[in-house]
Amino acid sequence: MSAKAPHDKNSSSVAENLRPLLFEAAWEVCQKIGGIYTVIRSKVPEIMSTWGQRYCLLGPYNPEVSPLEFEETELDGPLAPVIAKMREKGFVVHTGYWLVTGRPRVILFEYKQFESRLPEIRKMMQDHHGIPVAPEDSLTSEVALFGWVLTEFYTMLNDLKSLKNPVIAHFHEWMSATAIPELRRRGNRAGIVFTTHATMLGRYLAMNNPEFYTHMTGIDWQAQSHHFNIMGPVMIERAAAHGAHVFTTVSKVTGRECEALLDRAPDVLLPNGLNLRRFVAMHEFQNLHRSYKEKIHQFVMAHFFPSYTFDLDNTLYFFTAGRYEYRNKGFDMTLEAMARLNYRIKLSGLNRTVVFFLITRQAYKSASAEVFRRQAMLEEMHGACESIKDSLGSRLLMAAAKGHIPEYETLVDETSRMRLRRIMHAWPSSVLPPFVTHDLVNDDEVLQKIRACKLINRPDDPVKVIYYPEFVSTSDGLLGIEYDNFVRGCHLGIFPSYYEPWGYTPLECVACGVPAVTSDLSGFGSYLNRCMPDWAERGLYVAPRRDKTEDESVNELTGWLYNFAQMDRRERISLRNKVERSSDEFDWHNLGRNYTEAYETVCRRAGF
Q1: Rounded distance, CA 403 to CA 410, Å?
Q2: Looking at residue 530, what DSSP letter applies?
């Protein structure tokens, strides 16, 4: 039975109670942890347009964050008897709607109430499936509990005699997939789809093995899983991949990894898209760029100008962002390229300043006192200037009406002039601008690389560095704007990842009309090479890493960055226009067809 849209005229004759129900389970439903949250949340409108009320999300209930994203209410229809039965058996079940575009139905489970049953659940997983869950492994234990609750939900759904609809059970990542092997063992009728967005072992190996891609096919997965102490998660992932009727992943890059490390090639690829309606006013992106660039100007003036000044009209804003995985996210390569770009611009005499932001999240004690002081002083200077401007305007109008143009001293009162002089006197600083905005708990690889490359914000260095170990938001206390708007204000995003199953950060740049760098080792870069080989004409750059030495890759990236830095304003506007025209290619309206293929395949294989 095909999974047609509920209002599709071609399927209107199909009785509603015979059409499949789609359940999608993920650890990040109604709680933002990583990229899977963005995947699921952003595709909800497209899925809802096809499945409507036959679609429901399943996730763990987190009392700290779930209530902020979730409107709790009772659900009617075929799910009501199952929810009632679970509650009768003592399960705490929250039902309602996710407060995102599309408002999908959601069921959240309080799995921690069954912690006393963990010993028997661990034994069941070991005895039935050979999956070890160590008592000291708190995360895998939580995942096992959540999976057991999902197993009970699908079992009760399977036993519900009044339910005639076939059921599709889609699981994302190992953290929601512990139910899969037990459901297959019990002979559950649900058609099962499993999507891995990265392999556990692959992520660990890539962080620690510079020859990961070269030697991937010869890796002893058992020995390496023991080495990294991740045997439980790896075994869950393998059992889910082999237990699913349809196994999927997000890119060809990760597909090769799955084949090597999980011993199963994916049946369908599900590239990640975006809901471009979230990025409003797509055709106003030039105005938005100019507006938010001014916000970044304010931060940069406060950060650098007490020490020395430079021409903001000749300044470019580059950035990289992502979870702190120094090598996997390409932070090492990007910083090395910044150092070489610094040397090249200096050598050529190009009249250009590049301010590079590296944004991630690391443990810190507090924001730097010096950075706060500079920001506060600029804010005070801004207030003084605004006060003078307001009084000057009214006095100038009065003088002009009387027929003469007055001197500055007669327009600005002595108190305002003294206030501004005091601020200006305290403004200069004899120390270099900080290259990190917060006092980190530990010295990390980024700081070590910045020092090694001597990117310490000297006056004669055209490339300046700001290491920002907190995700940008309006409440971060420093930049004070939302991440999307920060991206809009920048000129270029740089993400030459070594290990990146997909890569949302360059895609978010595209959605904001900002040129971006990715790599051929990322899922997104692989997708561009395969489906959009004219990426250079679209304002994008795929850094070559697969068949290059690291030095060669850095040199090629540096050359592209230097060429970008040489562009004038008109050329950069033209490049942003090309990026904006390409953005629709990555909307879920286009990429959602891959999910349709996966669901139609599982219906055939499960015999619906």
Answers
A1: 15
A2: H
